[in-house]
Amino acid sequence: GGRRDTCYTSVFGDYEPIWPPHHADSAVDYVLVSDTTVPPRGWTHRSIDPTGFDSPRLANRFQKMRFHESLPASHLSVYIDANIRPVASLLPLLESFDESGADLGLYRHYSRNSVRSEARACLERNKVEHPEAVEPELRFYESEGFPDEDGLWEGSIILKRHDSTKLDAAMAEWWELYSRFQTRDQFSLPYIIWKHGLQVCDL
Q1: What is the distance between the alpha carbons of residues 179 and 25, in angstroms, rounded to a whole number?
Q2: Looking at residue 2, what is its pLDDT?
Q3: Any idea what the Cα angle at residue 50 is, between residues 169 and 132, rounded to 5°?
């Protein structure tokens, strides 16, 4: 009936130009979370002061992982990276995710299937802000018993089921790990899925 879902993106520090959605569904709220003072076209603007975070990147990741907590009226949400523009209806994606009953909806990584292989590739390409933290992070997951064989997920699009009983604790710990190591968020996501027993809808 009158259920609302939310598509949101997050930009801090003027890193990305913000394009209006090319296609907007009437049953979906499109929300931009940012520190910009100019509301962009096509998005409902949620202004956030980033001064409590050490960097724009941390402010962005906090919203990516935990902004769903600020959407009590939404049943589902879709996080998209700011460089992704909705060009078609999100409703088929939302409906198939809803029917799956899963906690998260994610796309599998296009080529790699372990955190260690992804970490190696990112280090080789200088895509890690704190490279010295990678090995301690991976060793921590190993010490916890994480098998690192459950696959690797893209983090650029994330669907969340807000009434999942596991979601809030899992996303809070994802944020805690990311802010602790500050490497790349897809390194910690498979560990979080494993530890919290999250059911993932493979998009």
Answers
A1: 34
A2: 67
A3: 70
Helix (H, G, I), strand (E, B) or coil at 21: coil
Measured CA to CA in angstroms, residue 120 lies from 111, 126, 143, 151 at distances of 13, 10, 19, 15
The C-alpha angle with vertex 122 and arms to 116 and 123, in degrees rounded to 5, equals 90
pLDDT at 1 over 70: no
> From start to end of 44-192, where are the E strands?
44-47, 74-80, 104-106, 157-161
Strand partners, 139: none
Decide: 79 and 157 in contact? Cβ < 8 Å. yes
pLDDT, tens digit, 9 for 90 and up, residues 112-150: 999 999 999 999 999 999 999 999 999 999 999 999 988
How many Å apart are CA 119 and CA 187, to the nearest integer? 7
Asked if pLDDT for residue 52 goes beyond 60, the answer is yes
Type of residue found at 143:
S
Residue 182, phi-psi category: left (phi > 0), alpha (psi -120 to 50), beta (remainder): left
Are 134 and 178 a contacting pair, CB within 8 Å?
A: no
3-state secondary structure of 108: strand
